[in-house]
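Try it yourself: sequence plus zinc ion, in.
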Amino acid sequence: MKLTKAPDCLFCKIVAGELPAERLYEDEDILVFADISPQAPFHALLIPKEHVATLNDFGPEDVSVAGRLFLIAKSLAKEHDLPGYRVVVNTNPEGGQVVFHVHMHMLAGRQMKPGLG
Ligand code: AMP
Ligand code: ZN
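Structure, out:
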C-alpha cells in the first residue's frame, strides 16, 4: 500500500517513527498507540497508517481498513482482558476533533456511564 503522509501531521510522524509513542498493535495498514493524555486506565488510538484527515474523508476504497479498526479493538479487548470498552471517532471541530488524522479512541478499564452524557 502506498502511504500518503501529510507533512505537518502529528500522527503521520508517529507512524513514521519520527515521534515516540507506546505502540500497542501494528500491521501494514493500521497502528494502535496509547493516548498521551489518557481519559481511562486503557486509552488507545487506532489509526490508518495512511493520512486520512477525518471520518468524512473515508471513501469506498477505505471500507476494509475502516472495518478492521473495529476488529482490532475487539482483539485488543481480548488481549488486555477488558470486559467492556467504548470506541469514539470525534469528527471535525464541532465533533471535538483536535488532531486531523482520523482516529478511533478506545477507552476501557473504568465503568462507563450508560449513554454518552
Ligand atoms: P481528538 O480530540 O479526537 O482529535 O483526540 C486527539 C487525541 O490525541 C487526544 O486524546 C490527545 O490526548 C491525543 N494525542 C495528542 N498528541 C498525542 C501524542 N503525541 N501521542 C499520543 N496521543 C496524542
Ligand atoms: Zn496524518
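One thing you can check immediately is this: Residues 10-108 form a domain with the HIT family, subunit A fold (CATH 3.30.428.10).
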